[in-house]
Amino acid sequence: MKAAIIEGFGDPAATIQLKDVPEPASPGPGEVTVEMLVLNINPSDLLQIQGLYGVSRPPLPLTPGGEAVGRIAAVGEGVTGLAVGDIVSPMILSCWVERVTMKASLAMKLPAGIDLKQAAMLKGNPATAEALLADQLDLQPGDWLMQNAANSAVGTFLVRLAQQRGINTLNIVRRESAVEAVKAAGGTAVIADALDDPRAFRKRVREAVGDAKVRLAIDAIGGGATGLMANQVADGGTVVNYGLLSGEQCRIDAQHLIFRKVTLKGFWLIHWFQEIGRARLAETYGRIAAGMADGTLTTPVADVVAFAEVKEALRLAGEGGRSGKVLMVTEAGRQAGV
Ligand SMILES: NC(=O)c1ccc[n+]([C@@H]2O[C@H](COP(=O)([O-])OP(=O)(O)OC[C@H]3O[C@@H](n4cnc5c(N)ncnc54)[C@H](OP(=O)(O)O)[C@@H]3O)[C@@H](O)[C@H]2O)c1
After folding, report:
1. pLDDT tier at 202 (50, 70, 90 boundaries)?
2. Is residue 110 within 8 Å of 89, Cβ to Cβ?
3. Which residues line ligand 1 (CB under 6 A)?
């Protein structure tokens, strides 16, 4: 079978290789074999291949891929609640393979009719949006938050979830052509701003929110963008950084932290998984899967590329100005109708 592998760190499209590897072992007790159907490509995958993700580089060779959707191909002894043919979200890393044998407890069963492309994007970004919205501050209906990179998958989910709860969102995108999609998703206000002119940015924020206090700013960019977001939150407000799309560390003036009591904190989904408890996880993913199934919580898809063309897929995923995510489809996924 085929697996995507890196043997060094570097430019994703140049570094990734598709290799023949042995089939996974038959599932043992408590295990299942999952046939991957659709594989997602996230910014974190690209950063990992560049050796820029997390606190230390992972050992090589490595199969990347944090997200996918698959179908149960075989079930080991003692596994309950999963059967051959079930569609699952594998809660594992190294997803860019054709088949994998894994712990059954890490295969989250999804509704049978779920859209496979949407299901490939279920594990990370929707839960991140939920956690950023619900678990940072106790926001009430009518409150405002602001976020940058608002047209990203996380940003779009956040807009939808906030709208469902009556929370107003001020959304910042870096290009005019992204404004409409965020408005259509339910963004209360959307501005295109390159975040390079603090005065102009302040003016535009004030025009958008009027006298309202923005207590929460959500930053996916880092670098100077973090400081600009801090500049606009109310005294005592919170800036949550959850990504470094600029490739730069967060820069924030100490005056906000010291004199305005602004808090800067980070968010990582893995910690949230560890802290949140099974009941909340089950409730969150149940709600997200239902929203994907009824079409209210979906992410736009820009391209679906054959897994055999993994280099081209990574090239497309690394381009700015996409209209949605770039997904890869395996041969089994094609046969399943993707
Ligand atoms: N901390 C966590 O646990 C966690 C979990 C999930 C995701 N994330 C992070 O969330 C962020 C969004 O992920 P996603 O999968 O939702 O993204 P995505 O759908 O792939 O979209 C990428 C977004 O990044 C923007 N962008 C790319 N390069 C940029 C730059 N140099 N400056 C400003 N904006 C830039 C794009 O703008 P254009 O459309 O204009 O190109 C687009 O809005 C990423 O940083 C990711 O690592 C973090």
Report:
1. very high
2. yes
3. 42-44, 124-125, 128, 149, 151-154, 174-175, 178, 220-221, 242-243, 245-246, 267-269, 320-322, 325
